[in-house]
Specification:
This protein is mainly beta and 797 residues long. The protein folds into six domains: 133 residues, no CATH class; 191 residues, Rossmann fold; 90 residues, Jelly Rolls; 106 residues, Immunoglobulin-like; 105 residues, Immunoglobulin-like; 134 residues, Immunoglobulins (Immunoglobulin-like), CATH 2.60.40.10. It is 15% helix and 38% strand. The chain contains twelve helices and 42 strands. The strands form ten sheets. The protein has a six-stranded mixed β-sheet with strand order 5-4-3-6-7-8, with helices on both faces. Strands 9, 10, 11, 12, 13 and 14 form a six-stranded antiparallel β-sheet that branches. Strands 16-15-17-21-20 form a five-stranded antiparallel β-sheet, with no helix packed on it. β3, α5 and β4 form a beta-alpha-beta unit. α7 runs parallel beside α8. The chain is elongated. The chain starts with a helix and ends in a 5-residue tail after the last strand.
Length: 797
Amino acid sequence: MQTSLTELNKLFITTSASNTPYPVAPLAKVTCTDCTSLGGGVYDCKDNIAVKNLLTSGYKLSASCRTKPPGKCSHGGKNDFSQNYSPVGGINKESSEPSISPHHYLHQEAADMAIKATQDFFIDPGYGLLAQLGGNVFEQFFGLLGYSLTMAIDTTGSMSNDIQAVKEVAIELIRNFTNTPDAPYDYILVEFNDPDCGPVTKTRNVTEFEQKISSLRVDGGGDCPELSMCGLEKALLESLPRSKIYIFTDAGAKDAHLLDQNKILIEATKSEVHALLTGYCTLRSTQDVQQTKHEQQHMRKERATTSNIYEELAEFSGGYYVMTSKAGLKDVLGIMELSLNSAPVTITKMEEKRSTLSFPVDNTLVDVSVSVKSVSSGFTCTIEDSSGKTVKTNTVINTATQQVFKISPVEALGLWTLTISKEATYEIEVGGKSLLDFSYKIMEEQNGYTLPIQGRPVQGLNYTIALTLHGANDSMTIHNLTMLDQKGVNVLDSYNVQQSNSVNGKITATIPVQFNSPVLMLAIAGESSKSTFKRMHAEPIFTEAVRLVRQPGQNGTMIPGGSTSLSVLIINEGSDSEFTFAVAVDSIISVDFNPKQKILKKGENVSLEAKFLASSSIQSFKSSTATFSASSTSAKNYVKVPISVVPQDALVVDENSPEYQIDELLMPCLGTDIQHGKDCKNHLWNVAFTTWDTDSDVIVSLGTDPTPDNAHFSCTPENSSTILKQSCSYRATCCSPYQEFLISDFSGNGNILTIDYRAPEFPAARVTNLILIVCGSVLLVTIITSITICVIHHKRK
């Protein structure tokens, strides 16, 4: 039997101790009793839940829920009017504030249990998602595979003099990282030529990847530019998120119109693009001249200081750009190795006219890297630590216009100083390897909830930055969050940080912000007991005037060979513009969408409809992401939508509850005398029953808490080729002539067998003319005092 994701979701309903799914309380069962009113809409609700070891939920009055059934719990709290109707009060534990949560005293315990249950759901070795799906699919689904090492290599004829050097450098890089902590998850090779783009090779086998690179041959081309942007697009779509992508070419881009789309994919996947050029071929036709003008127009939109489209992409993605020669390719191997750092951090990144720069070096840094680049040539650099001592450096790059150094190990903490031999405009980046870094999410209000935004924020609107400090300890404090301009020099805004600790111990903070600049970068500063620290996110935040909103209630799941349709609402918040739309997804899923273009006036919107078709060759679970985008001459934005391909047999959901049959019931406990008399413990009752399920194992537990004294309960599995059976027996004294048997399967389906022959205890003077009527499975006790009790034991086959 194959377990589906829907089935696995049901397994979230478990006890953390026994990993046994709890059944849901039947509709007719009373689950809550009245709480005590404390006035002002606040209730004391301790011990108001009437069921044990059964799942129940709280009703909250709304447009779709007008009433709550008799005996059922309310959600409760000042925002729930149903808490004033019997049973009054409620059960929610969302807050430690009594006016919001009737079970406020259980808030922390509930939070801890929720964390534990979540961990069990994902990684419990018996029933967790990891055990059910297997490591590879689990990691793929949650993006835990690591990163791809991807190479997009120009194989046109003009590369004939350089291709051998490219092969050697690529293979050496692979070998240097194969068996290290920084090793990639998989290796991808994308060939691009003219007029073709591809093929794509994807493998986890290092030897196979080396052989593929070694077998590359050059041909074709003819004119100057090549289809490098098509090659990069394929690389981005086939690679895992946060991948390292290297472009090797000696030519410009014939398809510069794909630049904006590639930037959106870079931003959506958080991947780095590193460009290594062995030249930039001269123009050979009027068409080439026009193409280069097109390329420059695209570049000017976000950064006008880069020399070509490759430097623009490297700058945009936080990657390296190097112009070198065939002979110099091996000299840039160190740059490539720096880029494969598994714990990269940025301390500062800036572009300014200067000759010195000071930066903090903290105790968490394993190594430090410094890159200095300028259009001016012939400069030299020195680095001094906080004591003024010259730091010993390892030179990675040393050309007339760029110098890159690596310092390892780091032997001194404090404020270091970089000194450059002459004053000029430099691009300086200081980074290193450290576990101490920060992540952030830009949050916005959506339907009463604060959720992460999709795509880029809109300029001028209010947002919240949710910040998390990783690799920190209790002695670390964040002092401020700073917004810097695109050059990393001017402070646009600075916010004091009031940090707190999350339930899992991480340092967090929420900061209300407004983005009033078209481009900005974020940095934090703080200190520990040993040193001060600074961290910067070098990837810029772009604000836009167009929004893309995922439509709710859509299904992104397909079977192999099947299809699904998704739509995204595009809203123009800026001036009237003509927008071009795109939907990108990896090659194993095809897509068609409409419209392709549309003029939108300010405030207008359009629905972008896309139909996806999964390849019939898919054999197992496949997780992918579709990137919807809209761009005009002045704005562009995107939204990511998850898509899954699930084999047909994995969609079969077990929704059948376990069944049972009572085989024997001996109940000699009828009447108040035998149940409440002194010798009730000398009389025994017992029941034997069989329970079964056709799809999964059956678990039977007792619902009465505490278990009566001297009670005995056991279940024994029965052999069967078609169904999973258990034979159970229970024995107790007549002092406790009742029991609930909770029956569950491992898909979370539940059933309840109730045996209840309790008689009320009355004063002797009132118990007269007692009539007992047994009819089938119903015991009716009628008393002259007009008290009538109907007790039923359920019998289901």
